[in-house]
Specification:
The chain is of the alpha+beta class. It is 63% helix and 8% strand. A 5-stranded antiparallel sheet has the order 2-1-5-4-3, sandwiched between helices. The N and C termini lie far apart (70 Å).
């Protein structure tokens, strides 16, 4: 990597200051994983991999993956190394992408004994001399409570942001900036005018937007929201009050989609109440467009972010897997294997961090999907139960009644009439 592509001296000072002030290890490295400098208990000084007979290739891949995800998620990312220790990272950007990165960690974010029981004994199946070597190495690993980790990751992001040039910061925050939002909205309105389409509310576009929320696709959701806002402005001829009504209806629908896919219901409904009060204050379309993007980001935060950083990466992967495979037979053991945890440990983590058991969450997703399918009178209840992953219709009916208070057939009749 060429020296002039970023200020290495300033970056080293940043990493040193962060390490000294937090007590955590920091490493400055390039996009390929080559380390320029490290301070405190960094990955370079960690001896845990060597203690269990692993080389450091897996660590380097994990850090490089973390840098890629940090770019994708807006400048910071919390993740786990191959040994289950926690790290977080922020990229140092040039005009065409990441040039270097500051990595903080590794550290333990859970009770030390829990870490030993899960990662070393259950997952690693260590014993004898290797277990003792691993225990000796763990004694030197810093411990940081999970409630502080998100704040520390944000602090690193802000520090690294000072070094990133304006164009790179704009690239990271493009979805939140008014010029990008207005540009996409305006471009879509021009497209509609050129195509000569009639001025009707775009139900199909709304449906695609809600599906993108269900699939946890933040970038696609932002793009479709901008297109839908453009279509609303086009169909309603820029009438502010009418547009505000449409926007509030849209936010309610998006909130429901977020709740159905794991967002905290009470918090999301409270946001809706705040949105309604705020919405009434706007007098211009420009203000409304920018605010709507911020509102969307709040909803996306509720959907994608759990109560704290502990095991956030694991939970995100579980939720994503369920969203993609809910129609198939899914077991806790199967998903646990995907995220490299034991079923017992994943069950405990899922309940503690998500607030519901794994099976409760899976059934919630399936029943919400079934509600949509029940709108189609041509689909038999037997077919619907299979389509959402229940092999036994009687069990589907039992779960549906427990979660909704009514039977599937009665629910359909209440929607469509007898």
């Amino acid at each position: 990597m060429e020296q002039e592509l970023f200020d290495q001296t300033l970056a080293q000072e940043c990493a040193l200051a962060f390490s000294e002030s937090t007590g955590l290890g920091c490493a400055l490295s390039d996009s390929e994983g080559n380390v320029f400098a490290d301070y405190g208990y960094s990955c370079e000084k960690c001896r845990l991999c060597a203690a269990v007979g692993r080389n450091r290739d897996g660590c380097i891949r994990a850090h490089n993956y973390g840098m890629t995800e940090a770019q994708r998620f807006g400048g910071k990312y919390i993740y786990f190394c191959p040994m289950g220790l926690t790290c977080f990272i922020s990229p140092i950007l040039g005009e065409d992408g990441a040039r270097a990165k500051i990595t903080v960690g590794p550290f333990i974010m859970v009770d030390k004994q829990d870490y030993i029981d899960c990662e070393l004994l259950e997952n690693g199946k260590l014993d004898g001399a290797r277990l003792q070597a691993a225990l000796d190495a763990v004694e030197n690993v810093p411990i940081t409570p999970p409630q502080k980790v998100n704040h520390l990751a944000t602090l690193l992001f802000m520090a690294v942001g000072f070094m990133n040039n304006v164009s790179a910061e704009n690239q990271l925050l493009a979805n939140q900036r008014s010029d990008a939002i207005q540009g996409q909205v305006t471009a879509y309105i021009l497209t509609l005018k050129q195509e000569g389409k009639e001025q009707h509310y775009p139900i199909d576009l709304e449906r695609r937007l809600l599906q993108s929320v269900e699939h946890h696709n933040r970038e696609e959701t932002q793009r479709l929201l901008n297109e839908l806002l453009g279509a609303i402005l086009f169909s309603d001829s820029g009438q502010v009050e009418l547009v505000k009504t449409r926007v509030y209806e849209l936010l309610v629908l998006m909130s429901r989609a977020a709740i159905n896919n794991g967002a905290d219901a009470d918090r999301t409904l409270q946001l809706n109440h705040e949105y309604l009060k705020k919405l009434m204050q706007f007098t211009s379309i420009d203000q409304l467009c920018l605010w709507l993007s911020d509102a969307l980001n709040s909803l996306m935060h509720e959907l994608f972010t759990f109560a704290d950083a502990k095991h956030a990466n694991v939970l995100h992967r579980c939720v994503q897997y369920i969203g993609e495979h809910y129609s198939e037979p899914i077991t806790l053991a199967q998903v646990a294997e995907k995220v490299y945890l034991t079923p017992t440990y994943l069950c405990r983590v899922f309940k503690k961090e998500a607030g519901v058991t794994f099976n409760e969450y899976l059934n919630r997703v399936r029943i919400n999907k079934a509600k949509d399918l029940l709108r189609n009178r041509d689909l038999r209840l037997t077919d619907i139960s299979l389509m959402v992953g229940f092999e036994d219709q009687s069990y589907f009916t039992k779960v549906f009644k427990r979660m909704t208070g009514t039977l599937p057939r009665a629910y359909r009749e209440s929607l469509l009439g007898k």
